[in-house]
Amino acid sequence: MRVQPPKLRTAALLLGLGLLAACGGKQTEVVAVPADEVECMARAMYFESNRSSRDGMVAVGTVVLNRVHSDAFPNTVCGVVGQPNQFAPGVMTKPMTDRGAPLARATALAVLQGERHPKVTRAKFFHAAWYNANYNNMHYVVTAGGNAFYEKRRAHLVTAPNPLPPLEGITPH
């Protein structure tokens, strides 16, 4: 019997859980996701949302995928998350050791299978909610999981120039 590496085993387990969840109630299309993409997405969610909320994790994942689909960024999750100076230091190398890791992996799989944060929409950027960024092109769309998410716009199109009050509990699960 061949033993699978831990990351592959985790991704296979999560995919199996997704399949089981799809069996009950409403019809859900389950999409096969490469294990490395799940791991990279989980790492971004785990380290960037400070493991504080599922909504924050989904919002981070939505930004990552918005970047993947943009010509201005790499076209893979691991490429986006691994970009220098874009995410938390050590995002690709530090261990995920606490109880937030399973939630990050399950949430990563959900986002890679199609779930999105409904308020993030087209945003490709975020920073810690406490940080005071003094730029006139930041249009804030939501604050969740300790981060303020925003779109870059021309200054005259910015209608929400300051981070919004935190909003939690709007993603399912």
Automatic annotation (TrEMBL):
GO terms for molecular function: hydrolase activity. It comes from the Bacteria. Residues 53-150 form the Cell wall hydrolase SleB domain. Transmembrane segments: none annotated. Residues 1-21 form the signal peptide. PROSITE patterns: PROKAR_LIPOPROTEIN (PS51257). Keywords: Hydrolase, Signal. InterPro entries: Cell_wall_hydrolase_SleB, SleB_dom1. It holds the Pfam family Hydrolase_2. This is Cell wall hydrolase. It comes from Sulfitobacter faviae.
